[in-house]
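Teaching assistant's notes for section 4

Start the section by putting this record on the projector. Ask students to predict, before seeing the second block, whether Pentapeptide repeat-containing protein will look compact or extended. Collect guesses on the board.
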Amino acid sequence: MSYPADTVDTMTTEAPRAPKITLTNLTPGYLGDIGPEEFLEGMELKDLDLAEVDSTQATYLDSSLSRVNFGDAESPVNLTGARFSGSRIEDCRADTWTMPRGSLVHTEISGTRIGAGVVHDSVWEKVVLSNCRISYLNLRGAKLTDVEFRDCVIDEIDLDRAKVNRVSFPGSSVGVLQCESATLGNVDLRGLQPHKISGVHSLRGATIDEMQMMLFAELFASELGITVE
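Reveal the predicted structure now:
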């Protein structure tokens, strides 16, 4: 039995919505401007070393951060609960990015090297990461909406218990994908070839291509306890 074309229900994966960022007339910012619960608006922060800086609960609004060192693994800047909105972060370095329970809204991060991203229980809305190198990204329990990882290299991303909607990875590579008990919607995984996937049963709401289906067959079978002979 055939149906008229206009009655056929077709499903498409919604693309992430782009952030809106307008940075004009920025004021030069200095190390002394950064502190707990500080409100930084319209600032240009560049060539700063934030090792051991306490920036908990701080707000970065419509600001630019470039060539900033977010600290060494032993002495990272503390960004717990910090909020970035309408901001751009580029060409920065963070051996350990410590920002649990923080938020990124209408924010772009580019050309940045992150060793361990400790950003669990955070909120990301309309965020683009481009040309970033990330060893481990802990997004457990986070809420991601309209997030794009563009041309990034990520060794491991942990989305356990996360709520993820309209997220894509164009041109990116991910080595290990964890998504135990995650809730996914419009998550575009096409092009990724992780060598390990944890939480296959939580991939409902994700989109993969035919080539991935063949490549992941063994991973899916192992995760679901299926023996292939």
